[in-house]
Each structure stands twice: as C-alpha cells, then as structure tokens.
Amino acid sequence: MIKSIGELMSDDIQAQRDQNFLIYYDRHGKRTETSYADFIERVGCVVQFLDKQGIRRGDRIITLMQNKVEQVTIYFAAWAMGVCVAPVNLAESDDRIRFIVEQSMARAIFVQSEASNKVKKLLMRNQVETSVFSVEADDSRPLFAQAGREWKALLNSSIDDEALIVYTSGTTGKPKGVILKQKNLLYDAEAIAEWHQLQQGIRMMCVLPIHHVNGIVVTLVTPFFCRGTVILNERFSVSYFWERIDREQVQIVSVVPTLLEFLLEVDKELQRVSFTSLRHIICGAGPLLVETALSFEKKFNVPIIHGYGLSETTCYSSFLPIDLSDEERRVWLSKYGFPSIGTPIKHNQMAILDEHGTKQAEGKRGEIAIRGETVMEAYDKRADANAEAFRHGGGWFMTGDEGFYKNDQHGRPFFFITGRIKELIIRGGINLSPLEIDEVLKKHPKVQHALAVPFENRFYGEEIAAYIVPKEGMTVTESELIQHCAQRLPFIKQPKVFIFGDELPYTATGKPKRLQLKEQLKKQLSVHRNIQFRAENADR
C-alpha cells in the first residue's frame, strides 16, 4: 500500500533518527550533514511557515534555486501539506519565469537571495498575487525557526494530490506544465527501488539539478522512500566526482550521457581514489551513444544501467536489468546500433505504435508509447496538447520518440530509442536517425562532440549537415570526416556539409539542443539549398 508523503513524514523514524538523510556539498566544497531527525524538524519549520502565509492544500508554489538543502526541505514540506511545487531553473529567461508564474498561479516563490530582487521586479507587472521569499538571507530565517510540536497536525496530503508541475523545455511555443501527483512520484520511487534492489541505508549521490524530475525522483524521493542517504552536490564537477564517491562510500549515482563524456576525459583523479563501493551508474535522460557506453565501462569497470523515461512519465519507465552478466549487458548496449533502454519496470507498460495506434511487431520502428501509474495526470491548461499526447486512447501516452524492441530468450521486450520524431532527418522521403550518424562521427579519434542536423535542400527536401567540436588541441578537416563517414555509412546517411565550433548547446539536464542548433545554423546552411549532392558513382 503506497502511503502519501505526509504519511511517510509522520511515520516513526526512530530507527533512522541519527542516520543522515542528506550530506551536502556546496559550490566551495563545504560539507554538512542533516540527519533524518534534523530533516523532519526542518520540514516542520517550513510547514508552519507555509501555514502562516495562508498556503493550503491544493495551492501551488515555485522554487527558483540551485541544489540546496533548503530546496529539498521546501519540497517535502509542501508535499506533506498537499501543496504542489513548480521547480524552475535559476538560469531561466525572464519571459519564461514570468510565464510560469502566471500559468501556474503560484501563491509564493522561494528564490535564492541573489536573485530575489530580479524576481520581484519581474512580478511587478504580474497579474497573479504572488509572494516572494528569499532563501539564505535574513528574511528567510523564519522559514527554519524552531517548529512547535503541533506542526504534524497540519499534514493533510493524499497520494492523489498534485506534487509537481514540471515545465517542459520545448524549442518552439510556450512550455507545457506536466502535472504529476504524489502517487506518480511514489509509484516510480517504489519501482526504481525494487529494480535496483535499494534497501534501508542505501547511499546515493545526486549531481543532477533537482529542479528536474531525474534529480528529484531518483536521488531525493527514492532514497527517502527506502530510508537511504543522499549525497547532494550543489554542482557537478569532474574534479570531485570520484573522490566524493570514494569518501562517502556511494553505491549508486544517477547521471546523464553528457556527464559520462566529461568523465571519460578524467585521468589523474583516478590515481588517488578507490570507488569499490559503487555498484553501478544509472544513466538516462538523453541520447547515449554505443561508443560512450562501452568506452566508459572499459575505462572505469563500472556497469552502466541505461534507462528511459520523460517528465510526462514521472521519471524512469524502463531500465536494463541489473542481473545481466557483463557480457549480456554489453550486447544489449551495442549489438543493435543503439544502446537498449531496457525493459519496462513495475507499474509501467510500453509498446511501439504506428501512426494509427497499432502495435508494431518486433524490430519494426514506430513511436514509443507508455501507460501505467507513473504517467502524468495531464498538461496544465493545455487541452490541445493532452488530446495529441493521448490521441490513440487506451491510456497510452505518446512520447514523441521513435524506437523498436527486440525480445530476449525469455521473451522479455528490450526497447531501443532511435531519436525524437521531430528530430528525424527526412531525406527524399526516407526517415533517418541523427543518433546513428552522431555515433559514427563520434568514433573519429579527433572528434569530441558531434551532432547531425538537417538543412533544407531543393532536391531531397532535407540533407544532412554535421556540427563538429574537435578534441582539445586537435584539428580535424572536412576531408578527413568525409572519408571517415564514407567508410561507415551509406551515402544517403553521410553528412554533406560540416560546420566546426567550440561547444554544443545543452539543456540544464545535459541534453543536446539539436533543434536549437538547427535553427542557429539555418542561415549558414541556406547557401547549400540548391546543391544536388551526389555519390561518386551515382546515376544521373
């Protein structure tokens, strides 16, 4: 029986009273500990503060912060009262922040002190009455004043209460607010804990931003659910990653593929640490390349448990099984051209559907669909988007990702993602996966990062360009890359134009912004619109 977060807060924690729930490292490396008893007390302070501000069950608040103990405390206090949180990236644009405030109709905003004046100015023209509370400044002290004994009487939450509104980072149009209920978070936490065999006392490290569902669900809600310990970092840095795993005896850490790329560049830090406590690394929330997965496992001898999910499905919906042998796991990571995202976890069903909503056979590509207890309630105030997302009925949420599945010897479906449908390159009426092209480009010894993007072409509708970031201190030429791709890809999939740069645009959670890059390069690539690119032996 799944309990609400309020009930979990009210449960007797005597056995974990002195156990640390949070071990926190700020940006300067300062380490602090918060036991379960201290954390519950801090939550009580915030519950009383929210109550005094007139915030009640069903209301919404916003947090605008980097990874902070205070932010975690505000989350749990709100959930314990049945209040919904809209976490926002501190680096968001003014227009986006203003939109989220108005769209969510938030009663209050909790913001880091250095940004509080900026937020107050933004809200001067806001039509919603929203209070702004600065955290880490003098006026935030009432938040964490000593709680009275009566605060638990204020806990009044249900698993059917809204818990989160996560605003998507779409490249066009206004962001959509994904409504997640407490039951979504708790069912996913239960499934993640069961899949990864997490027990009381598990030690997990969080290096991802906790304004996103990955950081929130995997490394906050799940450890609290099973009474574990979280090593929370204000920021990710390769310079301390392994050292903190060693020092804190971390057993599981959740990352995105971009962080694996950064860690692959590390050498000297490994000479002075041991990370034998680490069971495996959870990796998802972005496109993982085969080369990256295999190189990482070979270099660090740490298993990568690849998984998949979206904000709309709470967090993770599938993982590679953790009981696979090293050989079996590497087969699923490499044999089919894309790393498998695994099989559905508890409370989820997955399928591949065609444009008519018909299930596809093994190996045939279509859109990945998910249904179950972790699928969102809806997009907030977006009937059009809800109709599109659930257009085939039956509870199936259409993810917008193209994929396929292969059955193992036991009949379990192992799913694969081949790319975002909106990111597919359509050349001459044929759908091409940019991830497949990225994979080949990344194998060139002088290439650090690579993204394939389409550009408008008179003859084929779209042709393929590649944006390349060379490895530091290296220079790679267009002719080298043309030859490299010609040896590994059929002509239809080969990039015809190469553009070189210093960095890729990424989201706050480490996903490359392919569509944004496409728009950035549009003018530069327009000179190739009327060129007919031909293979050397192509028929005329």
TrEMBL record:
Q: Which InterPro entries match?
A: AMP-bd_C (IPR025110), AMP-bd_C_sf (IPR045851), AMP-binding_CS (IPR020845), AMP-dep_synth/lig_dom (IPR000873), ANL_N_sf (IPR042099)
Q: Which UniProt keywords apply?
A: Ligase
Question: SUPFAM superfamilies, alphabetically?
Answer: Acetyl-CoA synthetase-like
Any one Gene Ontology molecular-function term assigned to this protein's record? medium-chain fatty acid-CoA ligase activity
Give every AMP-binding enzyme C-terminal domain span. Answer: 436-511
Q: Where does the AMP-dependent synthetase/ligase domain start and stop, copy by copy? A: 15-379
Q: Which GO terms describe its biological process?
A: fatty acid metabolic process
Q: Which family does it belong to?
A: Belongs to the ATP-dependent AMP-binding enzyme family.
The protein in question is named Long-chain fatty acid--CoA ligase
Organism classification: Bacteria, Bacillati, Bacillota, Bacilli, Bacillales
